[in-house]
Amino acid sequence: MRILIRQLFITSLALGALGLGASSAYAQSSLQSSSAPASASSTQDPAQALIGLNKQLDTIKTTLSSKTATGTPLNDLRSQAGTVQQQANQWLETLTPQMDSVQSRLTVLGPPPAAGAPPETAAVSQQRRQLERDKSKLDSEIKQAQLLSQDAIKLTTEIAETRNEQFQMQLAMRANSPLSLHFWSDIANSFPDDTDHLKRIGGLLADGVNDAWQPGNRTPFLLCLLGAVLLIVPGRWLVERAALAVVIRFMPEGHFRRSALAVIFTLTVTLSIGLAFWLIHQGLNWNDTLDEDLETLAQSIVRSAFFSAFIAGLGRALLSYHHPSWRLPVLMDGTARALRWFPWLLGGAFLLLGVLEHVNSAAGSSLPATVCTHAFLALLISGLIGTALVRIKRIKRHHDHEKQVKHSLWVGALAGVATLAVAVAWLAVLSGYIAFAFFISWQMLWVGMIVASLYMLIHLQHDLFETLLTPKGRSGQKLQSAFNISPNALEQSSTILSAICRVLLLLVAVGTLLMPFGGGPNDLFSHIGNVFVGLKVGQLTIKPGAIFNALIVFVAGMLVVRIIKRWLAEQLLPKTRFDLGMQMSIITLLNYVAVVIVFALSLKTADVSLESLTWIASALSVGIGFGLQAIVSNFISGLILLAEQPVKVGDWVSMSGVEGDVKRINVRATEIQLWDRSTMIVPNSQFITQNVRNVTHGNALGRVKITLPMPLGTDAAKMREIMMEVLTGSEVTLETPAPYVRLDDVTSSAMTFSGVAYVHSPRDASAVKSDLLFEMLSRLEKAQLPLSTPQSMIVRNLGPLGEDSPAAPG
């Protein structure tokens, strides 16, 4: 059921993003697929239901292998096979829990008593036999459901291959050339019958209009017609002006406003014209008065109208010839003006294509009439595209003397392919390969619409993320303040999200391009999903959906961890008695634990068990034994540092010639800021295995020692008094331990006095010592107690050849 919902969601996303609601074949297939039961009925017998599914599968196989298979649309057969597969999977999901329940009850009962053991009671024996019968039945039904699902998958693949073969045969089919008389003679011969068929459709349409004009239906019919006219002419203009006013009022200036306007203008044209046709259809069929065939034709025309309006609106929004500043592609104004009518002409050509195709189908037109219609439409569509290319080339040639606009390589390649396709289509029509020419013309229109839609959506999502996550924008500043995200992280997130959306849009576009070949977005994503589901690495199975869910859990978990860390660091821990180092250690340890928990939850969401990772653990154990010993040792040492805290953030440490403040304790290494503001990265293991001096550990006090040499005749008592006054008079020195002054030494030339005082922190000792020295020197000068001057002796050689001798060389 989850797979079905995901596939339907992806398909609806592709249709909504690229405007593919008008594809009638795919819409019918989706409608039939959605008509399947949403879940297996609990009241229905599984055995009978599986037998019914088996009969349906046999009927599909018989229809496919019979000679009349060409009379049944292969898309219908493919849809029916897909429905059988979905129902088989639903029964499989229903029966598997029942099987687990029965097995659990058997496990509770335990094995039967062995020979010679006391027999079990009759009630237990009866319950065991009943559970065994239920287990056998459920096992058979589960196996049958699995076989049905596999057979349906194989049959779906076979139908797709058959359709591709028929498609290739149709393209290779050659008819009479329009340049030959046989082509026109066949049309003339079948003209009376085709005219009668068209008259029948015209009669049904006349009857429908007549019924709509009856008194009970006339007023709704006229109101619907009036509403359609108002939607197409003034309604679209008013909606565009209102949307423009809202965008200018609430959206900031920039690229996002431009891309948003392109999308809005595309949707306004699509909805105004499409809803106008829908209103006309509702007016004609107000009380279900239309014939069944005419109702089917009208619904098909309405879908074609939506699609053709999307083509016209998309081209109009991209050209934007009235407002060049709103234009997304890089085009000269002359080119935009020259092509301003071509989106409407191409949209009208597709509407004509849809109308003629459905009219031929409803009227049962002859083969010559169908071939003639295809030839006309191929020439019309390819002719319009060729004319647009010629105009573009002429404008470029006319502006050769001006500065040319540089285009990307893919633009030139696309124009070259389109030119070649136009030439091939015309040659194919003239040579009789009309089916091939019609296919090429339709593909040009289809690919152009897909490429233009992809171009617009890529610009929209890129501009959206750039606007929301720009560091200078309002939303970016709110994200920075709320989650403490750096500007670089915002820019990187914008780039990553834009790249992911671009890849997803490319996948949807590729899947949509495959639709005319019998594929589609659903098939593309199913194929990709099957590839990943089948990818196994050892016992580990990789599933794309589980990986996506795991990424969501991991990102959400890391955001929660970030919020909790910020709350601890800014609100809770500053209000406690812990010092800064203890606070940082607590935050770091909790961060490690939280990251491990989030990672484990992500693995659980991805359906990855620890048993599946045993081979990874084995490989890592070998690596740890050889090359990862140092990394593991540093990691364990980091945990020890955070737990025991011999060294914490904010400490002043000295080891192996490195002395500075501990700024951060990471998983592998510790950052120490030196006195010159540089940072030394020290592995954590060195703090465990080597001698480390922690100057500030245990609330250590700072010690200030001042040594002054004085002459021998100095009054020692006066000197001691002055030094004690300075040491005790300072506001930063401590009373306990009390300062003291000592006479350390008396030599033949000086007396050495030393004074010692204590301060609150070793970091303050140097500055306090300087202040005390300034104060002592000032007081000694006032007391006329000079410091001792060291005596130096200079010995000179005054001999006859000494440097002062007159005989010495000058």
From TrEMBL:
Q: Name one Pfam family in it.
A: MS_channel_3rd
Record-annotated Mechanosensitive ion channel MscS domain positions: 631-697
Q: Which residues form the Mechanosensitive ion channel MscS C-terminal domain?
A: 704-783
Q: From the record, what ranges are coiled-coil?
A: 128-165
Annotated TM spans: 220-239, 260-280, 300-319, 339-356, 368-389, 409-428, 434-458, 496-517, 546-564, 584-603, 615-642
The positions making up the signal sequence are 1-27
Which topology term describes how it sits in the membrane? Multi-pass membrane protein
Name of the protein in its database record: Mechanosensitive ion channel family protein
